[in-house]
């Protein structure tokens, strides 16, 4: 198709000069694309007849079930028979009236690359999902917001872990500028790449899913704290998981640290259900506020790890908006006794120039998280980390390793 477009531009300069190169290419793209699609439907062999239907895509080699809790507003449709609004398993960027619980099944393409989220891209002229090449949500379920529906949700996690033979759970709290489905894909990618066999769980708050709505995300992030606190308390008890890991990214750390602070305060007089690992990736939270909350976070976890970077442009922009340094900015490294701070600046990480999702987009860092979750190792025992200073480390640095 590209050769056809370029040939037309070369042979018809007057047309191009008359309406402009961009308009010409856009028009030709539509026309040639339409002809191409028609050629797939109709063949001329004396008379027109339909072409044979394309063969179905290869079935995925594996799928990941991602459980979720969200305080987003649920999308849905009106039932013809009852007139009631029925959820369709998707969620908007608006706040919901109550916490919704459910799961999504995500197919993983056979040639999935570690640290990648394969989705259709206009830059690759991909306009449709293909399970053979992309992560695809192929099944959704939202449990009824009743006592029985809630009980059924937690029972489904217990049944999942019993079937998998792994009594653990991994909760991911996404950050700023993330839609619901994006959070599902990231959770599935993390679970798959980390070879996590327990229950992967997404907590999705009402991020607006756009860079221009940062202040709106701040308000919704504050709104979600109470809901997240209750959800984490239920994960710790109702799943009956013996091991629970928490991973938060970006602004998700703001909600998580405040939720853990409230849990620690509420359970001051009672035994506190501890989480095995709390992993804070690129935390977009005021560094001073984080220092105030750190003691409570440490009370709720066996091991706390903080990943920071001096190349994080999103955190740099956040600092410009909010004046004060962010806990995930390695230029003002946050060092707190009991918390393993890892400087990831030296990793060759870049996501659309934002340098903000290095926790899930780089194999070296995923390998480090793998060792934390699977082996509960400390930084001095993990490959690729160097203490600063080396003889009595206050924090740790990644050494530069080529990303395959």
What's the main sheet like? Answer: 11 strands, mixed
CATH architecture designation of the largest domain: 3-Layer(aba) Sandwich
Shape: globular
The strand count comes to: 13
Q: What pattern of helices and strands is seen along the backbone? A: HHHEEEEEHEHEHHEHEHEHEHHEE
Provide the spatial order of strands within the biggest beta sheet.
5-4-3-7-6-8-9-10-11-13-12
| CA(first)-CA(last) distance | 32 Å
What are the low-pLDDT stretches, counting only 5+ consecutive residues below 50?
Answer: 1-6, 23-58, 349-356
Helix content: 25-40%
Q: Kindly report the CATH topology of the largest domain.
A: Rossmann fold
Question: What is the overall number of helices?
Answer: 12
Question: Structural class of the secondary elements?
Answer: alpha/beta
CATH superfamily of the largest domain, please?
Alpha/Beta hydrolase fold, catalytic domain
Portion in strands = 25-35%
Per-chain topology:
Elements: H1 2-11, H2 13-19, H3 21-41, E1 42-45, E2 47-50, E3 62-78, E4 85-108, E5 136-142, H4 147-164, E6 168-173, H5 180-193, E7 199-204, H6 214-223, H7 225-238, E8 243-249, H8 252-266, E9 275-281, H9 287-299, E10 301-308, H10 313-322, E11 339-343, H11 358-361, H12 363-375, E12 385-388, E13 395-398
Parallel strand pairs: 3-7, 6-7, 6-8, 8-9, 9-10, 10-11, 11-13
Antiparallel strand pairs: 1-2, 3-4, 4-5, 12-13
Helix pairs in contact: 1-3, 2-3, 7-8, 8-9
What is this structure, in a nutshell?
This protein is of the alpha/beta class and 404 residues long. Helices cover 37% and strands 25% of the residues.
């Amino acid at each position: 198709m590209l050769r056809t477009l370029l040939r037309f531009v070369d042979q018809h300069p007057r047309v191009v000069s008359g309406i402009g190169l961009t308009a010409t290419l856009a028009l030709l793209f539509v026309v040639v694309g339409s002809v191409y699609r028609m050629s797939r439907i109709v063949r001329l062999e004396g008379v027109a007849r339909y072409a044979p239907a394309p063969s179905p895509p290869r079935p995925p080699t594996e799928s990941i079930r991602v459980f979720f809790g969200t305080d987003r507003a649920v999308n849905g449709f009106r039932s013809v028979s009852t007139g009631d609004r029925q959820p369709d398993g998707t969620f908007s960027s608006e706040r919901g009236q109550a916490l919704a619980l459910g799961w999504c099944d995500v197919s993983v393409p056979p040639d999935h690359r570690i640290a990648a989220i394969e989705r259709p891209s206009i830059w690759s002229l991909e306009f449709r999902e293909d399970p053979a090449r992309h992560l695809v949500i192929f099944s959704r379920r939202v449990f009824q917001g009743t006592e029985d529906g809630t009980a059924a949700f937690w029972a489904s996690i217990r049944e999942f872990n019993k079937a998998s033979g792994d009594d653990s759970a991994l909760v991911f709290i996404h950050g700023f500028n993330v839609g619901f489905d994006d959070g599902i894909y990231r959770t599935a990618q993390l679970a798959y790449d980390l070879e996590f066999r327990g229950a992967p769980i997404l907590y999705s708050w009402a991020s607006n899913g756009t860079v221009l709505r940062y202040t709106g995300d701040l308000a919704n992030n504050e709104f979600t704290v109470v809901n997240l606190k209750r959800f984490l308390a239920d994960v710790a008890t109702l799943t009956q998981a013996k091991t629970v890991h928490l991973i938060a990214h970006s602004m998700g750390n703001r909600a998580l640290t405040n939720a853990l602070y409230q849990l620690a305060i509420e359970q001051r007089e009672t035994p506190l259900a501890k989480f095995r690992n709390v992993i804070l990736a690129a935390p977009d939270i005021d560094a001073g506020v984080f220092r105030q909350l750190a003691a409570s976070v440490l009370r709720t976890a066996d091991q706390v790890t903080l990943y920071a970077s001096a190349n994080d442009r999103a955190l740099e922009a956040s600092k410009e908006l909010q004046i004060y340094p962010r806990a995930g900015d390695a230029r003002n490294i946050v060092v707190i006794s009991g918390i393993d701070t890892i400087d990831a600046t030296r990793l060759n990480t870049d996501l659309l120039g934002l340098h903000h999702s290095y926790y899930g987009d780089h194999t070296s860092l995923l390998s480090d998280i793998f060792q934390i979750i699977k082996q509960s190792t400390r930084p001095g025992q993990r490959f690729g980390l160097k203490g600063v200073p080396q003889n009595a480390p206050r924090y740790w640095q990644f050494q530069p390793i080529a990303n395959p």
